[in-house]
Amino acid sequence: MVDDYRPFRQFISSILQKQPNLQVVGEVEDGLEAITQAQVLQPDLILLDIGLPGLNGIEVARRIAKMTPHVRIVFLTQESSAEVVEEALRLGARGYVTKVDAGNELLAAVEAVLGGARFVGSRLNENREPSP
Questions:
Q1: Residue 54 belongs to domain spanning
Q2: For residue 42, which phi and psi values (nearest 5 degrees)?
Q3: For residue range 12-53, what is the model confidence (pLDDT) as tens digits?
Q4: Sign of CA dihedral 42, 107, 30, 82
Q5: How many domains does the chain have?
Q6: Does residue 84 lie within any of the structural domains?
Q7: Are 46 and 2 in contact (CB under 8 A)?
Q8: CA 46, CA 111: separation in Å to the nearest integer?
Q9: Which helix (H) or strand (E) holds 95?
């Protein structure tokens, strides 16, 4: 999990740790550390914020996708503009959830992405235009 705000990471960890089939293997607070830890830990899934110190989440996703293409990325962020969502999905992110919807949609997103599907939060689907 990659987010620069520790209380939010703790909130998300508490949600995930209640699921017997999920294990949080690492938490980091900046983009450069996220890349390093992705290589070291080789997680199945990364929850990634966009607004990070060091390197923003979009660039982190781009680099992780090149280095460890098996890792699935779900953006968990405040950013909800259609352009950013589209760019994230173009980069290979498998999911996108806004922080405000994390309590309601995060587990569904994680399950969908780990199951091989894509997940875009309901609030974001309302604002997106279909991809060509």
A1: 6-107
A2: 50, 60
A3: 999 999 999 999 999 999 999 999 999 999 999 999 999 999
A4: positive
A5: 1
A6: yes
A7: yes
A8: 13
A9: strand 95-98
